Amino acid sequence: MTDRGNVDHNPYLDGLAPLLADASATGRRLTRDELDSRRLLGERAAESGARLRPLIAAHVREARTCWPTGTPSPTDVMAAVEQALDAFIEGYERAQRQAMRQEVAARREFIDDLLYGRSDLGQLAQRAERFGLRLSHAHAVAVAQGEVAYDEGDDVPRAVERAMISRFGDREILLTTKDGRLVCIAPGDQSEVLSFFAKHAHVATDGGRVALGRSQPGPSGVVQSYEEALGTLELAERLELDEPVLRAADLLVFPVLTRDRQALVDLVVNVLGPLRDARGGAGPLLATLSAYFDAGCTAAEAARRLSLSVRAFTYRLDRIHKLTGADPSDPTDRYTLQTAVIGARFLDWPDQPI
């Protein structure tokens, strides 16, 4: 019997039976020290990983098994049981909240270190395994930006996370927020993951823009891909690109064009500078070129986008040709003009002096 009692002994019920007997005998309430002792046991139970539901059932069984003898009022006994159990649950939940806060803090610290590359790469790789990432493999990062800033517990990130979990289960994916944006980190060989994220993030953010960085190897690859995605978002804003989902791999020419700012300034001034002599300034003719190139050099479509007749639009193209000496319909001149238009967008010319 003694051995069986040791096997069945539940340390989180220690002191419950005599406490109930003493409190119910007089109908008194539990003292502060008695309540604190039950809270402490609840905290220990949570810290050990014990599940709450079986512990509540164990309290009820203990009360029934050790029901005080004599003639105590059942109401008094149950009042003592209720107090003891309530204190135990309070301690359990308090420990769980503390553990959750620590987990959230550790996750946020890891994400900051990961995306900023501030930690030792070896230690970062070890910490990453705790959050389901193997940084020895290649990873790619997608970033979604909406009209408002998002925190990790907001409805929008949670909705996207539910969709991701429902579709991909427990794959090595990390979904989080950073600086108000949604961030998804996925294995570099699983492009379908980021495509799925982009689709749902675009919808969840009410038409927000999503940028996908390229797959990069190793722990530092996450930082590189993340910075590529951020750069793509900035590029899309500056160039006023309409596409909701942009891939850094498709826009590699633009960073090349902007790497030498002075050369870009010279190109814009020399090629497009004469447009400032037009009636109304360079703005309308620059918009004409932008619409023409965005429409695949189809004059009818470009005219429709600008709400102009085709005749009026072609007149503008002729005017550009006369002012700049470059013919938008000529393949060689077209490349020079289009590159200059891209440069003008980057430099915010002619609104800003260069």
TrEMBL record:
<dbReference type="InterPro" id="IPR025736">
    <property type="entry name" value="PucR_C-HTH_dom"/>
</dbReference>
<dbReference type="InterPro" id="IPR041522">
    <property type="entry name" value="CdaR_GGDEF"/>
</dbReference>
<dbReference type="Pfam" id="PF17853">
    <property type="entry name" value="GGDEF_2"/>
</dbReference>
<dbReference type="Pfam" id="PF13556">
    <property type="entry name" value="HTH_30"/>
</dbReference>
<feature type="domain" description="PucR C-terminal helix-turn-helix">
    <location>
        <begin position="285"/>
        <end position="341"/>
    </location>
</feature>
<dbReference type="InterPro" id="IPR042070">
    <property type="entry name" value="PucR_C-HTH_sf"/>
</dbReference>
<comment type="similarity">
    <text>Belongs to the CdaR family.</text>
</comment>
<feature type="domain" description="CdaR GGDEF-like">
    <location>
        <begin position="117"/>
        <end position="234"/>
    </location>
</feature>
<protein>
    <submittedName>
        <fullName>Helix-turn-helix domain-containing protein</fullName>
    </submittedName>
</protein>
<dbReference type="InterPro" id="IPR051448">
    <property type="entry name" value="CdaR-like_regulators"/>
</dbReference>
